[in-house]
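Newbie here. two chains, one complex. Structure please?
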Amino acid sequence: MFEAHNIGYFFYNGGGDSQDTSHKVSQIARRLGYPIVCIGIPKTVDNDLPITDNCPGFGSVAKYIATSIREAGFDVASMAKTSTKVFILEAMGRHAGWIAAAGGLAAETPSDAPHIVLFPEIPFDEERFLAKVDAAVKRYGYCAMVVSEGLRNADGKFVAEAGTRDAFGHAQLGGVAPVIAALVKDKLGHKYHWAVADYLQRSARHIASKTDVEQAYALGKAAVQFALKGHDAIMPTIVRLSNKPYKWKVGMADLADVANVEKKMPRDFISADGFGITRKCRTYLEPLIKGEDYPPFKNGLPQYVKLKNTPVKKKLRKHFNI
Amino acid sequence: MFEAHNIGYFFYNGGGDSQDTSHKVSQIARRLGYPIVCIGIPKTVDNDLPITDNCPGFGSVAKYIATSIREAGFDVASMAKTSTKVFILEAMGRHAGWIAAAGGLAAETPSDAPHIVLFPEIPFDEERFLAKVDAAVKRYGYCAMVVSEGLRNADGKFVAEAGTRDAFGHAQLGGVAPVIAALVKDKLGHKYHWAVADYLQRSARHIASKTDVEQAYALGKAAVQFALKGHDAIMPTIVRLSNKPYKWKVGMADLADVANVEKKMPRDFISADGFGITRKCRTYLEPLIKGEDYPPFKNGLPQYVKLKNTPVKKKLRKHFNI
């Protein structure tokens, strides 16, 4: 297909699987002796690619989750005395807790939401969790938390799949938030509400991080520049130079070193009790959500570009006379 | 209590129940011969108070829902060919479909998200719904929808409560979105995702409507002015003067006419097939989401005022010598 269409450059943006694909395409092309430049571009809200400081997309979803739990926290605090006492926001992250961790940025003092963050990296301990919820409700009047969709029990099973059945008898309607909510209601008796942001969080361009937008453009540009210089099977990266002020530059990693490596939250980014983020984590995350970059609005709604996605003419059969 | 603290003015903002309370306080005070001015101030995202053109809070949640379904729609459209084909966003509104209706504003053409809106005012017809989903997936490649939490079956039961059980055997984990999602999966086999925005939608000050913010301040101010003029048992209202350009002024309604009246979506605001909004509805809703009014941001997060909520000294016992 590349030959038929005379394609010499292959850019592919995405997370771990996409980088693996870029790497494979590059390897296959070399084996077949076809000259093509393959560049992977990091782009995943999961923020789980290795080597790069962070992944474009993450800073914005981080800003969304931190903003949302702060806002919902004020809502719950205002009525906790007579109504909802526990609020659970489910964040994405099947294997790594980066997005849930970002929720922790909203708490400037221990009394602020979120009072608890649950990570996939820390096995869920029901008893200690319930004690923590109880303590927050007693101390602050309410408990707001961010739960990662990838939360697992000590035996490695997703909590979201732990026996929930819908009206049709299917396992898992989906959602760890309702499972945690039911647990809190069952064991502590508190009135609860829960939210599952799902795609809303990763498509929320209206609350994008300026830092994130700048890095996304910079890496796209760097990808083209690296390609024109003939670099193959590489991925542009973000290299952090300093925290305060946040300084960074574009670097380069071999796709061979990126493919199939999943960067989880380091243990020292998670507080000793497993229910929050450390100062070190905060220092890492803070610059990534900085700055606002609002889209244009028309009639009260954000205006986004619609791609035409016009297919090119098929050439494969004709080129090879098949 | 009012007498002990020498309180002569009682302001109470909220929805239907709160207006009813204001009205009752006013009636009781008159009966007891205690001179107090009671003013209700409309404030409910449900937008279901009568007489007033709309209710402060609604314009902003409307903007949030329309923005969110537009953004998530782009996400789903981008990958529908090989992944998620059906997306369901659950919106608040236990009895009235105003918030779900606002989601309809995101669709400028029939191919745009949302392709379906489900209202509490229209009994859920499973067969016709599934045919509509199927048609959208075939025609546009995907189907994005907004579902009101108050959606009911033909027999008047909430769809969210239609038999869903959690791991502990409780009825209803909550959420109509996962129930609809499971139905789509079961009957049509499409891969789905769903989101329940819950409190996120009504606390999302970061995406507030400027029109809404202006009206909220105007009604608060009017409440004080009306009180100082001695009006009792009334509620300031928004009176719509024209649609394009949107012009409005502050009016006044008797609490007796407001209490216990629930304004649902008029039938002619809902399309003939029951799955969308009409031009008339669009004309009503459009001005309410207009304009942006961003909060101040610090370190990447919106900054909100924290009230001190310092209690006054208790006086009741001393005042009455009890």
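Moderator note: The two ends of chain B are 13 Å apart (CA to CA). The first strand of chain B starts at residue 9 and ends at 14. Thread marked as resolved.
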